[in-house]
Write a structure and sequence with these properties.
The chain is mainly alpha-helical. It has 9 helices and 4 strands, in the order H-E-H-H-E-E-H-H-E-H-H-H-H. The chain has one domain. The chain is globular, with a radius of gyration of 18 Å. This is DUF429 domain-containing protein.
Length: about 250
């Protein structure tokens, strides 16, 4: 669309809000935090929201004046910070021993050997997605009621829909071995695209896993979007759909 351009979060938000037609938009971040395991996002905090929209609103309220849809002020909040593992050995007293808390879909994706998720309360390490998930909650707060977000909203027959994805699910569906799903060369990318029924790609100026993840995920979404099994996971309950959500591709 704009080769070499580095997109800001606000530009991505503006692009999404301007969508017209049938689009399936996959975001590689979590719109929510673990809830079902403890019956709350932040046990012991009187402001802990009852549902995902309350969570988005809380993050927005605390971090709302931070530029670029950042969420550092939320992470550093005296009560919220008790639940996160942060850099510099700062681990909140409510962060449990071990890897942290997980959503039901994250446990399920591990059971199905689709991926190896990190807790969204863990903000340390190259593979963590907790930081992007918190900033993503500010984005979701802004698109709420403007774009359907699955599984929090009913899905219409036409128009754009936003879903949460793991790019590694797309990669393994394309035949890449688990644990080695990052593509950094054109030949491997074309083989993976062909496995998903897509044509060879137009050459890129640089082959990094950010660009190839996005291309492969888009090809996978196009290939599976019309399969009803992906939209009706067996363990997705109404309670989970209103609190933790679900990752598209975990059935």
């Amino acid at each position: 669309m704009r080769p070499g351009h580095i997109w800001s979060r606000q530009e991505v938000l503006d692009w999404m809000l301007a969508l017209d037609g049938d689009w399936l938009v996959g975001l590689d971040l979590s719109p929510s935090l673990a809830f079902a395991d403890r019956g709350a996002y932040f046990p012991g905090w009187e402001r802990s929201p009852a549902d995902v929209r309350g969570l988005w609103a809380l993050v927005e309220e605390i971090a709302g004046d931070e530029p670029h849809l950042g969420a550092n002020r939320f992470v550093d909040h005296p009560e919220a910070s008790r639940h996160f593992r942060r850099h510099g050995g700062r681990q909140g007293d409510c962060f449990p021993p071990g890897a942290g808390r997980f959503r039901v879909v994250e446990d399920e994706s591990r059971e199905q050997r689709l991926c190896n998720p990190y807790s969204n309360f863990n903000l340390v390490g190259a593979a963590q997605v907790g930081k992007s998930s918190l900033t993503g909650m500010r984005l979701f707060h802004r698109i709420d009621r403007k774009l359907p977000i699955w599984p929090y909203d009913p899905i219409l027959e036409r128009g754009p829909v936003v879903v949460e994805i793991y790019t590694s699910i797309a990669a393994t569906a394309a035949g890449l071995p688990r644990g080695r799903t990052k593509i950094r060369d054109p030949e491997t990318l074309d083989r993976a695209l062909a496995a998903l029924g897509s044509h060879a790609h137009a050459p890129l100026t640089r082959y990094d896993d950010h660009a190839t993840d996005a291309m492969l995920a888009a090809a996978w979404l196009r290939a599976v979007a019309h399969d009803p099994d992906y939209w009706s996971p067996s363990k997705l309950t109404p309670a989970l759909a209103g609190t933790e959500g679900w990752t598209f591709g975990v059935r």
